[in-house]
Specification:
The structure holds 2 protein chains of 2 kinds.
Chain A: E1 2-11, E2 14-24, E3 29-33, H1 40-48, E4 53-62, E5 65-66, H2 72-78, E6 80-83, E7 90-94, H3 95-109, H4 117-130, H5 136-139, E8 141-142, H6 148-162, E9 166-170, H7 178-191, E10 197-201, E11 215-220, E12 223-228, H8 231-239, H9 242-252
Parallel strand pairs in A: 3-10, 3-11, 6-9, 9-10
Antiparallel strand pairs in A: 1-2, 1-4, 4-5, 7-8, 11-12
Chain B: H1 3-9, H2 24-36, H3 53-56, H4 75-78, E1 85-91, E2 94-95, E3 108-110, H5 116-125, H6 136-144, E4 149-153, E5 162-169, E6 176-186, E7 191-200, E8 207-217, E9 222-229, E10 236-245, E11 250-257, E12 262-271, E13 277-284, E14 291-300, E15 306-315, E16 320-329, E17 337-346, E18 352-361, E19 367-375, H7 379-386, H8 392-408, H9 414-429, H10 432-435
Parallel strand pairs in B: 1-5, 4-6, 5-7, 6-8, 7-9, 8-10, 9-11, 10-12, 11-13, 12-14, 13-15, 14-16, 15-17, 16-18, 17-19
Antiparallel strand pairs in B: 1-2, 3-4
Classes of the chains: A alpha/beta, B alpha/beta.
Family (chain A): Belongs to the ABC transporter superfamily. Ycf16 family.
GO molecular function, one term (chain A): ATP hydrolysis activity
Organism (chain A): Oleispira antarctica RB-8
Amino acid sequence: MLTIKDLKASVENKEILKGLNLDIKPGEIHAIMGPNGAGKSTLGNVLAGRDDYEVTGGSAELEGKNLLDLDPEERARLGLFLAFQYPVEIPGVSNLEFLKASVDSVRAAQGKDALDSVSFLKLARAKCKLVDLDQSFLKRGVNEGFSGGEKKRNEIMQMMLLEPKLCILDETDSGLDIDALQVVAEGVNSLRDPNRSFIIVTHYQRLLDYIVPDFVHVLANGKIVKSGGKELALELEEKGYSWLEDAAENGAG
Amino acid sequence: MTDFHNGLLAVANTKSNAENELFSALNKSGSESFLQQEIPTRKTEAWKFTSLYNFTSNEEGYGRLAETHNAAGLDGITTIPALNAQRLVFVNGQYSEELSSNESVNNVVRFSQANEAQQAIIADNLGTAIEQEKHLFAALNNATTTDGVLVHVGKNEQLKTNIQITHITTAQAKPFTVPARLLIVLETGAQATVVEHFASNNDEQNCFVNAITEAKVGANAHLNHYRLQLMQEGSIQIGGVHVDLDRDANYDSFQLGLGAKIVRNDINVNHNVGGSHCELVGVYLPQNKQLIDFHSNIEHKIANCTTNEIFRGIMADKSKAVFNGRIHIHPDAQKTLAQLSNKNLLLSNDTTINTKPELEIYADDVRCAHGATIAQLDEQARFYLRSRGISSAEADVMLSFGFINELLENLKLDAVRDLIRPILAKRFGRDEELMKHLG
């Protein structure tokens, strides 16, 4: 599904990713954990194509296609989805208009016809219900005045509508109370599929109680310094990250 | 006294504007005031960024009325779809019975048709909200007015029918003036919605529309006022709105300006007695080489009044916009709440905006805020849309649309929103495909 080789990326000439390798097969859930500033969010943003990040080396392929050559919208149309850590508020554009534009674009890329307004509204309402968002959120401006939890649920709703191949959740759990966390986790679990993969970027082990990963990776100082099964997350919860960071420093030196 | 002054005043002496007793005093004082004021130049503070050269340099001058008033083929631009309104339509300044709706509401009448009681209302109010010595083109209008429209709503009367006043222009052999005057008088506790609407039949215009609106909003009265300027390109429109607010009066207004050869609006609101509220929302959307200028001036003369003013503009191509928002808080105007916001979005590198919020505060117990910004589209928002598969071009259109639509969402009249959205579509999308998800 996704193959990342020796990926290097900088922000404002500061190198953040320093040669990252990752291989994700269809149906797998990979958790990426690590201390603040390790490059966790950078990974998601680089894969989604944010301009602020400059890729200085390496490759990232989604089903054999080189992502790094593509515009953000082209990546989305190939089936990549990034649930934002900080979803953006866009007043004046209704959530429904936005969602329809998004779904139509992705469908068109897949050679499917646009849904008519009535069918789309029905679909969007159904997804709202699944993430426990009132239907009134469809009429409101995109994320406008939404609480932190509502924004994250809106992200998951978009993911459900777009049915992507690769879902990247960028600290979706940050700032969520336990109820919202469960809603998000249920949303993700409902989308689990042998042909769909997930990258769950998180700082804490908590989310992984609800979304059980196949692999856990520790990202420190721009590289993956340790990989393991779900039990690694528990070990990290207990020991923190510093022992791995030290190892990374030593390894680099 | 110059050729420019005399030329424009010539309108007052043309045949169809024969002297009328009701207006003779106003005409005389207007004429005197107009002659005393010099042609604004770059050195005139209020006209620093708006050049009148394209107006004053016209060799034929604008000092004549239109020769033809043909209503044929104008129905389409006359109506505002879905607006339930009593409609008065003027073509090149002359009333068109054909295009107007049957006058069923007696709250609205042309000055020339006014009955005795209405004439008394005109005599009592016309010109009283205007400081003509500060507004050259209001003085000109005072000098040349012999007809106009009166909207009068009596004590505690709530006018259910909206009033629409439309001015359409068509090109003439020679440049011409349309003196347009509207007087709105709401008595104590009255309510009304008035939509002013200016349009032209194509881009080949040579009119100068001198449109002045006066509103006298009585105690506890509520006026919803829409002023939609849809004339474009060759047109020149210079005028404004002058409002007097009585105790606890409410003035709720929305201004739309598309831009033309020259568009200049002076908006003056006077909080005269106390407890009144002014809501002033405006949108300007110049394109090509158009110019649009909004100069607002809110006078807080007395305590406990509130003003909320929001103007937003999107400038395309080589257009230019000027926004000057003055809020003047007098020494007696304690407990004033006033907010002013002006945001601008530039769609090209060749556009110009001159924006200046001006807060003058002479009272010590007030809360005032102002801000002006000039920006390009938000990159975070753009990336967010694109990361969902939306093309970069469609994302730009959605964001530009949203920037203005945020203000339209609060409009009370759906019909006005419906009128503006397709215009926005054309303006930013210039491609229906890119607007298909909006509106």
